[in-house]
Amino acid sequence: MPTNFSAGPVRVRVPATSANLGPGFDALGLALGLYDDLAAEVAPGGVRVTVTGQGAGELPDDDRHLVVRAMRAAFDVLGGQPAGLIVECVNRIPQARGLGSSSAAIVAGVLLARALVADGERRLDASAVLRLAAEIEGHPDNVAPCLLGGFTLAWSEPTGARAVSLAVADGVRPTVFVPSERGLTTTARAALPATVPHGDAALTAGRAALLVHALTADPSLLLPATVDRLHQAYRAPGMPGTSALVNALRAAGVAAVVSGAGPTVLALTEPPPSFPVGTDWQIWQLPIDVSGARVARGRLGHAERDPVAAGRKS
């Protein structure tokens, strides 16, 4: 069936995310109230990408841009490629910091492409969007909360990724500590050993199960629930500042973990007001996003084009 493209622009808002949350390696994720806003429309030819905010002047402005690559993958599934594309990105999620910037770009691209096809939702339903986004990203732990919002549990089956979203209990107060330096997921994954001791695996599995209860019913258990022995210690030598801050926060009774592959630190309970943090860190209190990615018709408005990080407190 030929692809019929919708006339006019479409826009999407996608949240930042934090994956792993300590023991939930490659499975658990949380959507945070820090957003990228993007818009796209079909053009007679060529590809033009403009970027404002995070990554401006660094990210490619053509088919190499991750949003466009995700759109292309979705258009292939949807039955055909448009002659050209115009894409506008207002980025507030820091790049390569462990807050899901790549997943946000992928989810945005897939959803923009679907919205630009007249019967896109019929051809690519919500489950298929998750599967495709996870396939592009390589794992579902960030794309799931970006799509669904809230606290998500994601897993993979032979048919692809699946996920569920759960409501977060009152008392969970995310704070992110964002450093100036960047990190790469590929580098962080390369630090992980091929095997871990059985005792470490068993302990981490138990804490991951406890974390689901702590986040959804009893935040008083977040400190013991965020103990991990699968990945954080192995990655610590590559980001000593992150490791030191996590350890200091935990010693002060704060449920702190490495956000995704780092180097950002996520605290799920509020740090003491007088907790000492160096000047190398930006500290943002972020709400939990409960809606996930949102699509609408039309161009970005004046407020959506503001590159300042909406929703955060510093």
Automatic annotation (TrEMBL):
Pathway: Amino-acid biosynthesis; L-threonine biosynthesis; L-threonine from L-aspartate: step 4/5. Its main location: cytoplasm. It comes from the Bacteria. It catalyses: L-homoserine + ATP = O-phospho-L-homoserine + ADP + H(+). Keywords: Amino-acid biosynthesis, ATP-binding, Cytoplasm, Kinase, Nucleotide-binding, Threonine biosynthesis, Transferase. Catalyzes the ATP-dependent phosphorylation of L-homoserine to L-homoserine phosphate. This is Homoserine kinase.
